[in-house]
Specification:
Blueprint: E1 14-19, H1 35-40, E2 45-48, H2 50-55, E3 63-67, E4 72-79, E5 87-91, E6 109-112, E7 119-120, E8 124-130, E9 135-141, E10 152-158, E11 161-168, H3 174-182, E12 189-195, E13 200-207, E14 210-211
Parallel strand pairs: 1-5, 2-4
Antiparallel strand pairs: 1-8, 2-5, 3-4, 3-8, 6-7, 9-11, 10-11, 12-13, 13-14
Amino acid sequence: HPTAHIRTSPDYPLILNTGRVRDHWHTMTRTAKSQRLSQHMAEPFAEIHPLDAQHFAIGDASIVRVSTVHGEVLVRALVTARQRPGSVFVPMHWTDQFSARARVDALVAPITDAISGQPASKNIAARVERFAAAAFGFAVLAERPGSIDADYWSLARCAAGWRLELALEAGRDWPVFAASLFGAGAQGETLAYHDVAGGHHRFARFAGSRLA
């Protein structure tokens, strides 16, 4: 097989493996509709061994860029000893419907096995770097947002509607940003809290007496 002899290099020192997680199937066209199934792993992630995380200055739960010669993804770091040193695992499920840049097919070679047709997704030289985020955000929304202007984002079902995790390389006009998440046609009143010195901004949209 043409990918069987792939080797690491100083630029790509890790071996990337892909696969599935417990509660999702394929590209989540069905399982992502379930709030219960989305609770187990709500965000795309990269499992990395603690020794590799220390070497590459990656903290647990930080946003990381996983790159190969074919492309890159932005995912949440999951530092765990169950991952072998020198390797990294990124699940295959997340698509552009549920994340900004987490499609694992962007990382693999555009070739398939001649007999089975399976993609070469189990043995890819890769590197992992910390994503230098300037701002982080979290939101719970009754309706799925139409567009999300963020470098990293991940959507998952929750009991109230949708939960959204965000990370951005640069700040935004935060009232405008919040309004874009609520939607142009959203009805109700928006309450805002701004701590400029601390860099904290909070917004709540009410429709009558209920959070919208």
